[in-house]
Amino acid sequence: MNVLRFILQKEFRQIFRDKTILAMMFAMPIIQLIILPLAADFEVKNINVAYVDHDHGNYSRQLINKVASSGYFKIIGSPQSYPDGLKMIERGDADLVLEIPPNFERDLVREGKQKLNISVDAINGTKSALGGGYLAQVIADFNANLDVNIKSSRANLAIPRASIGVSSTNWYNPRAEYKYYMVPGILVLLLTLIGGFITALNIVREKEIGTIEQINVTPIKKWEFILGKLIPFWIVGMIVFTLGLTVMYVVYGIFPQGSLGTLYLFAAVYLIALLGLGLLISTFADTQLQAMFIAYFFMMVFMLMSGFFTSTDSMPGWAKIIANFTPVTHFITVVRLIVLKGSGLSEVKTELFYLIGFAVVLNGLAIWNYRKTN
Amino acid sequence: MKKLLAFIKKEFYHVFRDKRTLLILFGLPVVQIILFGFALSSEVKNIGIALQDNAHDVQSEQITAKIQSSSYFNVEKPVLNYPDIEQRFKEGRIKCAVIFPSGFGSDLYRAGGAKIQIIADASDPNTATIVTNYLTSIINRYQQELNPDRQLSYQIVPELRQLYNEEQNGSLNFIPGVIALIFMIVSTALTSVSVVREKELGTMEILLVSPLRPIMVLIAKAIPYLILSLINFTIILLLSVFLLDVEIRGSLLLLFTESILFIITCLSLGLLISNITNSQQTAMLISMMGLMLPTLLLTGFMFPIENMPKVFQVISYILPSKYYYSIIKAVMLKGLGFSYVWKETLILAGMAVVLLSIALNKFKTRLS
Question: Whole-model pTM?
Fold first, then answer.
C-alpha cells in the first residue's frame, strides 16, 4: 500500500508540474461545453427561398406572402427566370426555387388544378426533406383556404363527416429545445476525450522519454503501476465531470431530473472503463503519436456510433451490435435518461452492467498486456 | 536542391517507420466512409412506440394496424396507463405513445369528433417532431379514407425536383465533410508533432546545425504528409464512387488542385502549432482536441451554420475547412467550374501564406 502512495505522489506531481496540460485538461472541456451547444443545433429554420413568378396575379402574391410569413422560409430574391434562380442555388445563396407558371390563377379557377414547380438543393438531405415538407404544408393550407373562399357558398354541410382531432404533447422538453438533447451528450463526449486521450498519452510518454525503465527496475507490481496511473486521472475526470455539470446548470439551466448519486455512480464506472481503454492503448503504442492516433481512431468510431449525432434506432443490425460494444453509447443513453427524464437506478441497471463489464474487461486486458520486460 | 531531397528522404523514413500510425492513417477514412455510408442515417426509422387503446373498436384497431405496418415504427407491447408510459420512457424503450380514448369509434361522427393523443419524448426534439408528423399524417390519411367525397376541389399540386441528388443519396452530404476532417487530422495533427518531436527527442540540435535554411526544413517536413494526404484523398474518392455511388460531376483536375491548396493550408497550420509548442502532448491536444470538435461542428456539414449565433458564424469564417467544404461541394457534387469558387480559393491561399509565414517566423534557430 505504501508503494502505491508513493506512485500516486509522483503522478500528481507530474500532472501539476505541466501547467499547459493542466489548463488543457480543465479549461478546454469547460470552454467547449459552454460554446459548442450553441453551435450544435439540428433545427432547420431559415430556408432560403427564391421565387420566380411568371403570373404576377393575386393568388401567386398571396401564396408567396404565405410562404414568407410561415416562419421557416426567408425570401431572398425574385429572379426573372428559372435559370437565374438555378444560379442562386449554384452559388449557395438559395436552397430552394419556387416557380409559379404563367396563367397560374386563370388555369386554377378554370381547371381546378394547377402545378407549381419546386426545385430544391438536395445535397443536404435533412434540409431538403424538411424544406420540401414545410412548403408542402404551406401549400396544403393554402389549398384549404382556396376551397373555402371559392365555394363557401355551396358548402354541403349536410353529410356527416368523420373527424379526428390529434393533440400532441411533448414530454420532458415541452418547447422542444435542442440544448436539452445536446448539452448532456457533449458533456459525455468531452469527458471521453479527456479520459481516453490523456491516459493513453501518459504511459507512452514515459516509454518515449525512457523513464519507464526506472519504474520497471523497481519492485513495483503491475497492478500497482496501473492503479497509480488510473487513480489520478480518475480524480481529474470526476472533477471535470463535476465542473461540466456545474456549467450545464449555470449556463444552460439544466439540472439533472434524476438523482445525482446515480449519475455519479455511472460516471465513476464509465471513467474506469475509459481509463482502462486509454491504458490498454498505451501498452500497445510505442510513441505518443501512435497512441494519439489509435485513441483518435477509437474516439471517432465511438463518437459516430454512440447515438450522439444520429439515433442508434435507425441503424442496420450489424451497426447496432457495434454501437452496443461502444461504452460511450451506454453512457450517453444513461446521462440523457437521468438528466432529462429522471430515470432511477432500477430503470437503467442494464446499462450499468454493460459499463461494469467494459471496465473489467478493458482494465484486465491493460494489466495483462503491460510488460515490465521487453 | 540535393540537400533538400536528402532531407525529404529522411522525413519519409520517419513516416514509414511507424507502421501503426500509417495503418490508422489509411484505415480511418475507410472506416469513416463505411460508417457514414451504411450505418449512420439522418432518417428516422424503427422508432419505439407504445399504444394505449382504451376503445378497442374497429377504427382504433384499423389505425393501429396502419401504424404497425409503417417501417418508421416499431410497436412495443401495449401500455395501460400514464405511469406505465412514463416507466417505458424512463427506460428509454419508447420514443412516443399514442392514446385512443374510450368510445373512439362512436365519437367519430359526433359533433366534436374523436380525439387521439400523441405523447412524444421531446428530449430528442428532432425525432419528436418527425414522429409527431408521421403519426399525424397517418391519422389524416385514415380520416380522408373515411370521407371519400370530401376531397378538395381546387388544388395546387407542388412538383418537387431534387437537384443534384435525384436518388436522395444520403452520402452526398457528408463525403465533403469527411474529406475535410481527414485532411484536418492527417495534415494538421501529424505535422503539428513533427517539429516538436525533434525538440523533445533532442534531434533538433542536429537539424539546427545543418546547412539547411528554416524554410527548407519546414518544406521537407511538409512534403511527405502532402503526398500521404493526396493518397488518402484518392482512396476516399474511389470509395465514394464505387462503394457509395457518388457521381463526381466537376473536373477532377480542379478538385485535386483545390485539395492540394487546402492540404497546404492545413500543413502550415500544423507547422505553426509545432513551432509554438514545447511538447508533443501539448501540440496534439491543441491540434486534435482543440480542432476536432470545432471542425466537426462549424464546417457546416453536420449543423447548418446559418442557425448558429452570430459569434460562431464569425468564428466559422476563420476555419479553412469551411471554405474547402463549400468548394468541394460545388465542384464535386454540383459540377461547377472555377468561376464559382475563386473567392474561396483566394481566401484559402491567403490563409496558407499567412500561416506559413507566421510558422517560419516562430521557428527558433537556437535552442532555448
Answer: 0.76
